[in-house]
Every structure is written in C-alpha cells, then in structure tokens.
Write a structure and sequence with these properties.
Chains A, B: Keywords: DNA-binding, Kinase, Transcription, Transcription regulation, Transferase. Chains A, B: GO terms for molecular function: DNA binding; DNA-binding transcription factor activity; kinase activity. 2 copies of one chain form a homodimer. In chain A, about 40% of the residues lie in helices and about 20% in strands. Chain A is of the alpha+beta class and about 250 residues long. Chain A has 2 domains: about 15-140, Jelly Rolls; about 160-240, Winged helix-like DNA-binding domain superfamily/Winged helix DNA-binding domain (Arc Repressor Mutant, subunit A, Orthogonal Bundle), CATH 1.10.10.10. In chain A, a hairpin with a 2-residue loop joins strand 10 and strand 11 (about 230). The longest helix of chain A is centred in the middle third of the chain and has 27 residues, at about 135-160. The two termini of chain A are about 25 Å apart. The first copy, chain A, binds a DNA duplex (30 and 30 nucleotides) through helix 7.
Chain lengths: ~250, ~250
DNA sequence: CGCAGTTTTGAGACTGATCAATGCCTGTGG
DNA sequence: CCACAGGCATTGATCAGTCTCAAAACTGCG
C-alpha cells in the first residue's frame, strides 16, 4: 500500500492543470485560462494510492477535497457488525470530500478500488473559490447535485428493484458512465469491481449476486469475465433493469 | 387541491423574509441585513399547496427552487409499474428543486405530505446569487451536501438494515429533525406520514411495516397513533436501529 | 350513518440469505 | 517448473425474512 502524502509525490512529476489529461475529454465543459490558473493555485498536490487503500474513514476530519484523475474509488458506510453499503463508485473526473469541507466531518468512508491518482485541494481554500470564482462555486454545487442525482437512482434501485433488475441497472449505469468518458471500446468496458463489491452496492448477498449475474449471462445480455464486461444487448439490459437509456449531460469538473 | 401560482397568493399576504418565521429558530444560522435584503429580492413568491398536491413531476422542467416555510413534502421516484421509492422527507427550512436549476430537468417528483407553504425562487436568479453573494452560494452547496448526507444514510438503511432496524432508524431520524426545529414536545412529535408512505421510504411492504411497528410498540420503544408519535425509549430505539444519537449541526437556509 | 382511506391480522408463497464446499486463477517461493 | 496460498467465483442445499393476497376493523369526515 502506497499513500503518498499530498504535496509530495515521489517519482512522478505533478500534472499541471493546463495539461490535465481530463481536459480534452468531451465529457467535460471547457475552462477559461483564468479559471485554469486559479484551479492550479487551488490544487495543493496529488495523492497516489494503490487499490485497496482507504482514502479516508467515516468520522475523520479530512482536510481535503479530491478529484479523481485516474482510477476508481468507492464511497461506503458500515454498520457496527460489519455490514457494508457501497453508496457510489467514483470514476475519473468525479469529485468527493465535499462534506468535510462543509460540516468538518465525513459521514462515509472512501476506498481506492483500483490504483488511483487524485488531485488534492485544501479545504481552507474552498471559501476563496466562492469569493473570487463564482462560476467554479456554481460548478461545485452542480457536482453536488449530480451526486445527489446518482444517489436518488441508487436508492430507487436498492429500495424497489428486484435482484435481477438491480444487477442490470447498476451494470448499465456503470457502462454508460465509462462510455461517457470515452473509455469504452464499443460495448466492451473494464469494470474493476468484484462481485462482492457489486453485491455491497446493490444491497444483496454476494452469492445471490453471482447467481443473478449468471442469469443475465444465460439470457445473452452480458458477458462478464472480470474485469472485462461485454454488454451484448444494451436495450435488452435496459428493459430488464426497468431503466431508460438517457444520455448523460456534459459536466464541469474542478 | 389548491395550487397558488408563484407571485400571486390569494388571501394571505406574503411573508417578508425579514419576518420569516424560521429566522428566529435556533436551528438556523443568523443572516446579515444585506443577505436578508437580497434573499427578499431573490424570492419571487409563495406557493400554498394542500396535502397530496404534486409540486412537480419527474422529467419536468421546473423553473423554480423552493424552501419549505411550513409543512412537509416528500421527494420520490417511480418505476414504470408503479413501485415507489420515497427518497427523503422535507421539513420546514429544507430546500429542494436544485437539480432543475443545474440540469434543467428533475429526476424525481415532489409531493406535499401536509398542507405546505413554500417560498419560491426563480432559477434564472441563481446565477446572480453566486455572482454577488458568495456566502449564499456557499450555503446552497452546504444544503446540497446535507441532502447528500441524508441520502447516504437512507441508502445504508434501505440497503443493509433489517426491517426493524429500518423502521427504528427512520422514526429516530425524523424525531431528531423535528426536535432540532424546536417542534417537539419532549419526546412527543407529530409525524404526518401514513404507514404506506413510511413503507415506501423504507423499501418494505406496508403490511410488513405495520407488523414491524407493532413489534417496536410491544417492546415499549415507541407509541404511534398517527400522527402522534411518542418516543418512549430514545436510547433503546437507537440501539435497535443500530444508529448513533449525534446532534445535528446548525445550518443555513435560503 | 356511511364512505374512503388507513391500519391490522392471518395464511401461504417466494425471493434472497446463509452455510458449506469446491473450483479456479494468479502470484510467490522453493 | 511445480507446489502452495489467498482471493474470487461458483454451486447446491436449506432456511428465514419479507411479500402477496385477502379480509376485517378502525377512524375521521361529509
């Protein structure tokens, strides 16, 4: 496990915001020079973490905000006896850690699902952002509303969909998000989570999740040999999921 | 069903922000004169709606943001076949409708649970707020983060808690929220939702919800003769819920 | 008084949980 | 190059929590 402290990355040179690999991506809105310069001063460093590393724990007073440059993370909550609910997955360009900068304490934990590179922002500067870059403040709210949107969807899934609908809708969502980032090869994507982790996101047991995946496979909708996921029938999958195939809006990121 | 259009309330005089009944409440942070004046210009009217009225529907392009002055609402999503998941309840001081002002379209519906009075803000002015009142922009983000916090909790509840834990934790949360608003009489509060609505928030059937409430009652933890809820054993209820009794932070509102 | 919506109760069915193995792949060290 | 360990995936059998269906009792209201 490597957890490089913010501000000092070991071998790798830090990426300048100007040259941020995410900038060119069509999924994200364009930035002005001025905004870029500010974001650069806002950024305090990078965090490189191996898969499995805990970025922060519930109850922590994390002093940072993070944008994912590469890799996946997941947010989760635990009950005392160890039951775990994964709240959402974070992909490149996604933002997390807002709560601590608002309330001073996180209500959930975050773990690196794959090796990740995170862009780190100190929370003391958040206020500065609102004061001098209202458009970026607006973007922050936008991103918070987007997270809420995804949570609403997850809550519907976990609360009201059957097992097969749940698996179908989460795989579908994840596929669409990867596709939006331009990281899909046709209907083929890399989905790095284990069945156990998927189960924890769905509110199901891992055994039943496995059996449900098999069913989707035997119905010729998907083919998943972790981490390679092939969506063989997108419309069919959406039908089983009881979901619509809306396209995702272009979005900001910090 | 009465749905008074924003900007024209029939008999009632509109409430000036300066005299907003919520202002004095300890649950909320104090505002400066300048902020109050702006919020007053931001406000475009009031919406008075009877219990059961739909404020807006999923897919709508709602042009407004709302703060609840009095009464309860709930946010929900539907599946095609009518299964309903209630995402969260809104109480006085709570804010909703942010998504439409960010993405132009709501992903969920909102219904008045009781008769409500809502304070209406036009979404065109949201940008103005960020530009000229950064502290209010910050507050908006704060409120979005708070909603996220509540959704995280709900997702954990629905995904990983058992029926009895679910009922206990939602009743507990609702009690604490009412208490924070100073609307509790000791351990007694008015909880206006039906068992069916509670069930839809919990991801349970209404029959099983009823049986579970009975169990909590027979264990002498609560006493609920709708709408009168009496929490007979707060600590015991928290224990059953597998939840902690943290106090809620003072919060902003618009 | 009667209606409509809500709560309550019982019985049986079923989805998904739990338990317990087994198989499989990958990386590691001998 | 093989043996082994550890993590994951897979499978079968049994169990139980929750759902569905159906009907009755209750409550507030016109």
């Amino acid at each position: 496990m490597t957890l490089t402290p913010p501000g000092r990355s070991p071998n790798t040179e830090q990426i300048k915001c100007k040259h941020c690999p995410l900038r060119g991506n069509e999924a994200f809105r364009a930035f002005t020079e001025k905004e870029l310069d500010f974001v650069q001063t806002f950024k305090s460093g990078e965090l490189v973490a191996d898969a499995g590393t805990t970025i922060f724990l519930e109850g922590n007073n994390s002093a940072h905000l993070y944008t994912i440059l590469s890799g996946w993370v997941f947010r989760y909550k635990l009950l005392d006896d160890g039951r775990r609910q994964i709240l959402n997955f974070g992909l490149p360009g996604d933002f997390f850690g807002l709560q601590s900068s608002m309330f001073g304490e996180m209500d959930h934990s975050v773990e690196a699902l794959t090796d990740v590179v995170l862009c780190v922002f100190p929370r003391e500067k958040v206020w500065h952002l609102y004061e001098h870059y209202p458009d970026l403040g607006f973007d922050l709210t936008w991103l918070a509303a987007r997270e809420q949107f995804m949570l609403d969807e997850n809550l519907l899934t976990v609360g009201r969909r059957t097992a097969i609908e749940r698996v179908a809708s989460v795989l579908l969502n994840v596929f669409l998000r990867i596709q939006q980032l331009g990281m899909a090869r046709g209907r083929r994507v890399d989905v790095p989570f284990t069945q156990q982790q998927l189960a924890d996101a769905l509110g199901l047991s891992h055994v039943h999740t496995n059996k449900t995946i098999k069913k989707l496979t035997s119905e010729n909708l998907i083919d998943w040999h972790p981490p390679k996921l092939h969506i063989k029938d997108l419309e069919g999958l959406a039908r089983v999921a009881n979901a619509e195939l809306a396209s995702l809006p272009v979005r900001p990121f910090i």
